Inverse folding.
């Protein structure tokens, strides 16, 4: 039988759209209040103010975000160290849901935060496992190095095949 992992009702849901210099945050408390939307910079002061704000609400927080390059790592590490539960929303799921919800491919950060919140409500997110905390950072870096070596090898092979071989061996 399939296990269902619905989001419990007594959680504060937090959706964070991560960017290079700032993050768009959408907070929905469990009470029938209003959502709060704000923008925070990528700084420790804003990280701490977000953590304090979420603690003041008084209910456990479930935080969802989309991995964006490496920009999500400091915030995710900080929030996990503060004891918050984190969910990773896959990029493809976010894009397809955004297209379905808004009937458009058009993308902006507040809209992405809204879609992340919707995915959190429906329980569509992966549990975040920080590579540094879980001791898999070396394997991840080795995998990235292998990827870069493979790209370089392919680039060299294509330049040989498409340029030098036809030039010198017609």
């Amino acid at each position: 039988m399939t296990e269902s992992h619905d989001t419990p009702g007594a959680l504060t849901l937090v959706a964070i759209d991560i960017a290079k210099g700032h993050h768009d945050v959408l907070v929905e408390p469990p009470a029938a209040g209003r959502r709060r939307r704000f923008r925070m910079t990528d700084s420790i002061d804003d990280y701490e103010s977000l953590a304090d704000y979420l603690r003041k609400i008084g209910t456990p927080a479930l935080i969802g975000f989309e991995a964006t390059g490496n920009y999500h790592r400091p915030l995710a590490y900080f929030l996990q160290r503060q004891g918050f539960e984190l969910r990773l929303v896959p990029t493809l799921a976010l894009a397809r849901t955004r297209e379905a919800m808004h009937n458009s491919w058009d993308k902006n950060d507040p809209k992405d935060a809204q879609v992340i919140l919707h995915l959190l409500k429906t329980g569509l997110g992966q549990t975040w496992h920080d590579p540094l905390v879980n001791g898999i950072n070396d394997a991840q870096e080795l995998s990235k190095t292998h990827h870069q070596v493979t790209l370089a090898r392919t680039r060299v092979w294509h330049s040989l095949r498409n340029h030098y071989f036809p030039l010198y061996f017609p």
